[in-house]
Amino acid sequence: MSTATFDSVAKLEAKFGSAILAKAEFRGETSLTVSPEVVRDLALFCRDELGFNYLIDLCTIDHFETEPRWEVVYELYALGRGEHLRIKYRLLEGEPEAPTISDIWPTADWHEREAYDMMGIRFRGHPELRRILMWDGYPHYPLRKDFPLEGLPSDVPDVAFTKPAPLQGGPFVTAPTDGSTQVREPRARYTPPLPPKDKFIAEP
Predict the structure, then answer these.
(1) CATH number, span 3-147
(2) Which of 69, 80, 86, 138 is the most exposed place for a label (fewest CB within 10 A)?
(3) E strands along the chain, which residues?
């Protein structure tokens, strides 16, 4: 942990006390697990008092068959001093809902929409929480671990429909050979060998 990050963590621990549930250090990166009840206040403190002026990413994790099932992760960065901090919190399975931080860091806007679209986590207070990859009315959440690889049927009249896709020999199935993973992965079966360099119309 850098001196700057150590100072930031110390200030967060002093401000939020027992709401900082866990602290982890791995390969120079610091992660704090916090209580979901303090997320908004903690995010504002990180931006306004600690100078974390950029949200690099917001992602979610499905800890299927573990409770709390859902985890929300913020990757924060202080552009002026090159400091990184990861904030995490967990949500119960039920109807997962978290406060929006799109008004604190505008980059959260589309990240929260994607998390809602793919994982089904709702962000309370988001200005326009609607699907961003799947179509409106799609009834499933494709990145949940209980969503089958072949997909699920759906039918939204006059919009779109889906049917389960057979996996045998399909694009998501590795080939049962003795080769390495690189040889066995799907793209290796469909990528033709590169032509000789003098056959390229332009440099690749």
Answers:
(1) 3.30.460.80
(2) 80
(3) 20-26, 29-34, 54-62, 70-78, 83-91, 97-99, 122-124, 154-156, 160-162
